[in-house]
Structures are given as C-alpha cells and as structure tokens.
C-alpha cells in the first residue's frame, strides 16, 4: 500500500519494488544512502556552477578560486567541451534531484529527514563558498 501522509516506520518501499526495508539494518542503510546521495547532489551542483563560471570566462569569487580552474579558454573546441560537460552535469544533477524528490514522496519521515540533512550537509561542505551572489538555473527544488 502506498502511503499518502507522512508515517514513521522502518518498513519502507523506496523507488523500486525490490528496494524494501524489513528490519532496522536495512532501514538505517537506506537512510544512509539517502543522506549520501543528497550530499552528492550538492557536490554535483557545485561542480556545475564552477564549470559554468569557467565557460562564461568570469573569475571566481576569492573564496572559491582554485589555481587549476583559472585557465583561460581559447577556441570554439574548448567552449564546446565546457558546454557538453555542463549539459552532462545538468542532466546528472536533474536526475539525482528527481530521484530524491521521488524518495521523499515515499512519505517516510526518516527518509525525508535523511534527505534534508544530507542536502544541508552537502550545502555546508560544497556550496557555501561565496556563490550566493551568482544566479544559477536549476531544474529541481532541492537546490
């Protein structure tokens, strides 16, 4: 049965029929996976933002400037490579974001909290590096 309101239980069916938790070990590993994937989502978004700055030829804010990322792009081939890499990262982050959204739609309270905590932890480690002044396009509300 699919729940339509939040519930607290160690028994959850997440994303696919074969991902069912029946005991506490399975449930805790599922929550850990949700936390890690949501933190990874923030990491991918950080990489996408940095790549977008490289492609635009803008300098990084001093807080996130890295010597390896300061190279000037020359030629259309380099800009095409940045566009392709940016499109790939956008697709990957969109897919992860939608899977996180579908996981939250399992309406399990523990899954919800694990994803929110994972997003906050990922933001703390990867995204609070002076990029607040940048306008970023994203397809997911998880950003």
UniProtKB/TrEMBL annotation:
<feature type="transmembrane region" description="Helical">
    <location>
        <begin position="107"/>
        <end position="126"/>
    </location>
</feature>
<keyword id="KW-0812">Transmembrane</keyword>
<comment type="similarity">
    <text>Belongs to the copper transporter (Ctr) (TC 1.A.56) family. SLC31A subfamily.</text>
</comment>
<feature type="transmembrane region" description="Helical">
    <location>
        <begin position="27"/>
        <end position="44"/>
    </location>
</feature>
<feature type="transmembrane region" description="Helical">
    <location>
        <begin position="80"/>
        <end position="101"/>
    </location>
</feature>
<keyword id="KW-0186">Copper</keyword>
<keyword id="KW-0813">Transport</keyword>
<dbReference type="GO" id="GO:0005886">
    <property type="term" value="C:plasma membrane"/>
</dbReference>
<keyword id="KW-0472">Membrane</keyword>
<keyword id="KW-1133">Transmembrane helix</keyword>
<keyword id="KW-0187">Copper transport</keyword>
<keyword id="KW-0406">Ion transport</keyword>
<dbReference type="InterPro" id="IPR007274">
    <property type="entry name" value="Cop_transporter"/>
</dbReference>
<dbReference type="GO" id="GO:0005375">
    <property type="term" value="F:copper ion transmembrane transporter activity"/>
</dbReference>
<dbReference type="Pfam" id="PF04145">
    <property type="entry name" value="Ctr"/>
</dbReference>
<protein>
    <recommendedName>
        <fullName>Copper transport protein</fullName>
    </recommendedName>
</protein>
